[in-house]
Amino acid sequence: xxxxxxxxxxxxxxxxxxxxxxxxxxxxxxxxxxxxxxxxxxxxxxxxxxxxxxxxxxxxxxxxxxxxxxxxxxxxxxxxxxxxxxxxxxxxxxxxxxxxxxxxxxxxxxxxxxxxxxxxxxxxxxxxxxxxxxxxxxxxxxxxxxxxxxxxxxxxxxxxxxxxxxxxxxxxxxxxxxxxxxxxxxxxxxxxxxxxxxxxxxxxxxxxxxxxxxxxxxxxxxxxxxxxxxxxxxxxxxxxxxxxxxxxxxxxxxxxxxxxxxxxxxxxxxxxxxxxxxxxxxxxxxxxxxxxxxxxxxxx
Length: 300
Description:
- By secondary structure, the chain is mostly helical.
- The protein has helices at 2-5, 8-51, 59-151, 158-247, 252-263.
């Protein structure tokens, strides 16, 4: 009766499938959110590169800075590609989960239909069983009553005994009809139960297969996720190494000389400035050595 009306094992299976769906949905959401994070990071990196517009540097440092920006843009592309790959993983999870839902629902619908048929048959069967047993008790009471009358024939009116026998005969016919109905319903509920159990077994086997596939598929996608993580790190490290290789040759003296070459104003100092005094007097002024511009002042 517990299998027919309750089916605790069926409820446990449904709970297992339900929890599996929750995890699949959670992992799918993780992939989608991770894809968004990667794309947003790629956009921010590219925007950062685009906003770096300084162009007045010369020499090896200018080249190193240009290469750093170029490789940063490549890192941005790596993350943008990773975002697309995480989207693919999310779509794979979604398609796989939808297919599992379709298969499990078809199996559940078939089992539910047979379960409803079984419950209906069992309800009719138990009702008929109760009626059949009541009819049997009624017939037994009539038989006992007739036996009692026959044992006390001297005190029983013959018509009463005849009436009892007619009543017993009708009760017997009624009992036999109810027994046939009871047997038919028993056969029906037996067949319904067998059909339900057969379909239930198929569904259990299907659920186990689906769960095995779910675990394997989820594990495979998580593995792909870690491969993506590794690829991002490897590519980013490769671009970082290129940056280091481009920065390392920076020549401080060479950059200074290059700047002087393009921006020098000459190799000679400006001429001394003459001081012209008033009243025609000449005055010698001692000037210290060094970088002073005025080495001689003449007064007139």
